[in-house]
């Protein structure tokens, strides 16, 4: 291959417009072996062709597709027009190649053929610049980075550099990328508590994050609110960025994807939008169900999905339902979503909630009595997020007010959460559980027998009925054989007194309470 030229002499600031008079050479420092004439010849020809393309295609199309091209003469009487990515090369081949070849053949007296290629990092290119566009190493996309949704792959302007410059890795996207959401540093694989409900989803996410090759495409995680989908998504992105920082990872919500697309339509800049999302190595979109019923967004996502899969890029998605249950998603897209690995996260079990609480307590560095953790795990059964929130509130209250963390403190601080999750316990259930525990008949709860072996369990049942139900004292009395409310009040006071003086009895009552609350 002949020596190629750089644009280092285009001007001191790299911004001289080569197309103003059609005769300005593109670059002059081309080496010392006679390659200068070919480089100048190609540069002058390309500058004239580009001027004509700008007039014919218009400024928007010109800036998106022609301006990023680099030109490279070869010894075999051919010339390469290089584009930063396969997507851009394919688009130009489909929409503009014929006209570009016609203009070139009419301008080149040597009759050299044109080839459309993707720039490689080890091949320095002659930049036919029209405003400072420089040769672009592979892995770094060329495009407009002045919009609020500029792609993670678009770097800051790079000044012209000598031909001898070696290959550079693409920039590693960070949490502050314009169109990629910020990752929560707490959401890593190390902080994810696994159990039966989520172990399969965790293993699949770990495989995708650690694999050098595309493992499952797409990986589709689904489950209800607060079950760990977003945690796993962030963990995948964190791991890939740390282990392979050269890979471009884009993580965002489906809502942001849609708004970015709508904005691109309004700005008549859909080309930049397509390039942003189709040039990443890993595309991760949270809450895919958001695009249900939004046909134009689904259509664009469908084509983005296919483009990335065809290029062997990884896709990770999450939703609140399985692909087959996303009713307002078109059949074509729904089929694509289900073609990889679908992993669901089930509602939490008591054991998993207890594990989440223990892990969170360890992160806080606070010694919390096991009974308190068990109490919260039993009482708040919706999802891991609410369980964590309850413990956070309890710890914050204890530290700010200076109170020890006890069962009573937990009941007081979390009373609204406990009430929202409270299963409506009945007096009949309490009587049955107490009778089983003390090995007496249920009928004894409402009988007139007054022996201690019967009276004491009856008093405990009355006490627990007062503590665990919303029933009034007269209502409780009626369930115990029509007894007066003062009898119930006496039973409550007697049990409270025994709990203060008899540790074994207090443990017994506490055990019954926990059994009933679970």
UniProtKB/TrEMBL annotation:
Residues 426-495 form the Chromosomal replication initiator DnaA C-terminal domain. Residues 182-398 are annotated as: Domain III, AAA+ region. Residues 142-181 are annotated as: Domain II. It holds the Pfam family Bac_DnaA. Residues 215-343 form the AAA+ ATPase domain. NCBIfam families: DnaA (TIGR00362). This is Chromosomal replication initiator protein DnaA. It comes from Roseospira goensis. The lineage of its organism: Bacteria, Pseudomonadati, Pseudomonadota, Alphaproteobacteria, Rhodospirillales.
